[in-house]
Automatic annotation (TrEMBL):
PANTHER family: AGMATINE DEIMINASE-RELATED
Protein known as: Agmatine deiminase family protein
A Pfam entry, by short name: PAD_porph
UniProt xrefs under PROSITE patterns: TAT
Highest taxon of source: Bacteria
Naturally occurring in which organism (per UniProt): Streptomyces qinzhouensis
Length: 382
């Protein structure tokens, strides 16, 4: 995910740290720092045939988390909670949703999410970004399921994360599946798998001393491949230091299937760092091959005009590519640029003709630099 992707828009706004990195400047808790330091440096995922499937595989459930920190969200907390609840209720029409909430905020979560969403209080959380903090589930094609933890460290110790650092292991325990820590520090939004051996990622996020000091790109790539059951990484340069994630891939480039990728491209008039990087991602994928040596088919998804969207927040993430696939549906967003919103709906409908395309107004969450994919994590069927 790229929570700062929207900062350089057609308004000509100079990109800087987004809302979440500014609030995180209040400091990392001592407990969170100790947890990050305690991650075994040489822990590796179990070898074998386990692999992270592509997102459109059937799910057992979707995992989400409930934000309740005014230290992080300030006066915007209630609006963000309403958006998270809307996403949870929508997904729950198609598959089970389990939402992790702290005991003190569980009643509000249940009230806003409704009875179709299961609220779980045994997995405490710091924030709502389950894509980054939750376990990455893997299947072996023979009925086996396990989970990998990516050693979440608050996007390079930019935000308190004592509870979020433990969420992946606690969720795996609740689900009753084996859990192993990966041999790198990262986040689920930083890695995009095709389910058949190929990964996409940005160097700015992972080949970064705030996550993986002393590790080379080759070492990080090998650890990613071991964790995801892959054999090839397609690297993009990304954009370093301008948003809290250091430019996650899942708001720009996504895999639709092995050998088929989708890239959200900016308007021709957008010339900021993120726009240039998106064009470079498209160019790299256009000449790339998969782990199996197959040429990549790259499709375009046109981003909106930031002068026409509803939000005027300079940190707003207007990413159609940050959609989430659940059983029978594509959960995406609309931003108020009517033409671009409808074109995105038409593209997703064409790409997923057997699924309902749900477009939601999540402007409060978007103003925090996140999207629908950012707050969800799938548990695939074994």
């Amino acid at each position: 995910m790229n929570r700062g992707m929207s900062l350089g828009t057609s308004r000509g706004i100079d990109r800087g740290p987004n809302r979440r990195s500014v609030l995180a400047a209040a400091g990392l808790t001592a407990a969170g720092a100790a947890l990050a330091a305690a991650v075994p440096p040489n822990a590796h995922a179990a070898p074998g045939s386990f692999r992270v499937p592509v997102e459109d595989a059937r799910h057992t459930r979707t995992w989400m988390a409930w934000p309740d920190s005014t230290a992080i969200w300030g006066g915007r907390l209630s609006g963000v909670q309403a958006d998270v609840a809307l996403i949870a209720r929508t997904i729950a029409r198609y598959e089970p949703v389990v939402l992790c909430a702290n005991p003190g905020s569980a009643a509000r979560a249940r009230s806003l999410c409704g009875p179709a969403v299961t609220v779980l209080t045994s997995v405490p959380v710091d924030d709502c970004w389950m894509r980054d903090t939750g376990p990455v589930f893997r299947t072996d094609g023979r009925g086996g399921l396990d989970a990998i933890g990516l050693n979440f460290n608050g996007w390079g110790n930019k935000q308190p994360h004592a509870r979020d650092a433990l969420a992946a292991g606690r969720i795996a325990a609740w689900a009753g599946v084996p859990f192993t820590r990966a041999g790198l520090v990262g986040e689920g939004g930083a890695v995009e798998p095709d389910g058949a051996g190929t990964l996409m990622a940005t160097r700015s996020s992972l080949v970064n001393r705030n996550r993986n000091p002393g590790k080379t790109e080759q070492q990080i790539g090998a650890a990613m491949c071991e964790a995801y059951g892959a054999s090839k990484v397609i690297w993009f340069d990304g954009v370093r230091g301008q948003d809290i994630t250091d430019n996650h891939v899942d708001a720009t480039s996504r895999f639709l299937a092995p050998g088929e990728a989708l890239v959200q491209l900016p308007l021709a008039t957008d010339t900021d760092d993120y726009a240039r990087d998106a064009r470079r991602q498209y160019g790299i994928l256009s000449t790339a091959t998969t782990a199996a040596g197959q040429p990549m088919d790259v499709l375009r998804l046109q981003g909106p005009d930031y002068d026409r969207i509803r939000s005027t927040n300079p940190d707003f993430l207007a990413s159609y590519a940050n959609f989430y696939l659940c059983n029978g549906a594509v959960i995406s967003a609309h931003f108020g640029d009517a033409g671009a919103d409808e074109a995105a709906r038409a593209t997703l409908t064409r790409l997923y003709p057997d699924r309902v395309v749900e477009q939601l107004n999540i402007d409060r969450l978007g103003a925090g630099g996140g999207g629908i994919h950012c707050v969800t994590q799938q548990q695939p069927m074994a």
